[in-house]
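Posting this for the archive.
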Amino acid sequence: MLKIEHLKKHYNNFSLNCSLEVHKGCVTGLVGQNGAGKSTTFKAVLGLVSAGSGSITVFGKDLKDFTPEDREDLGVVLADSGFSGYLTVNDIIPVLKNMYRHFDYTFFTEQVKKFHLPLDKKIKEFSTGMKAKLKVIVAVSHNARLLILDEPTAGLDVIARDELLEMLRNFMETDEERSILISSHISSDLETLCDDIYMIDNGQVVLHEDTDVLLGSYALLKVSEEQFNKLDQQFIVCSKKESYGYSCLTNQKQYYIENYPKIAIEKGTVDEVITMMVRGQKS
């Protein structure tokens, strides 16, 4: 569905070198700290920034060969863009009808009603959550095959995030040919939504793993210095010095459960894996 190979982009104080793939029928997450390269990657996929080198293929077609009709198959939410605040939902409906041949007016108005978005109120008067919901509703209302969502849940409360994630699940369930590439700072969103996750740090992809494997096989070992020195290091991804000794990230939790019954082993979350991959010492 989407394939990025050795995408490189250089700025004065930042260099991106990214490869990732989004498969048909899958939701893929891209996680990392602010400034890690997530938004630059998304904008390169959309042709909003030019790549220094590398290739981007969408729907099996090189991005350079994309037509306006091809772009209609993309649903996009960017963190730093949206509709003019002086427009209302009623104002943007004819715009969407003209932009997208397959705009589903009935679905759109049903979703606007479901999420209690006023039709005649100026968008600048919307809450953060209302603006976020509107952007996602637009993205899923024209029969897109691939959604590219940069921080769609940023700034939302728990209820609003859950409503947006439910909308995305429904989008995927409606057509098994669809796919989503999504970035988020909120790991719980990705843990429940994504099939696989890429982790990016300082412009480099440092980890790619199926979400089930990440949550099932990764763990944090909390050990004293003495235990650390005796620990089999072959399945330690990285480690970090702590006041009590060491915190170690492993991708083979069961091995250490079976062979080191006396050490403390905690289930790894996406947040903890990110922290260890960024701050830990690689083994």
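The CA atoms of residues 181 and 226 lie 43 Å apart. The domain at 2-212 is CATH 3.40.50.300 (Rossmann fold).
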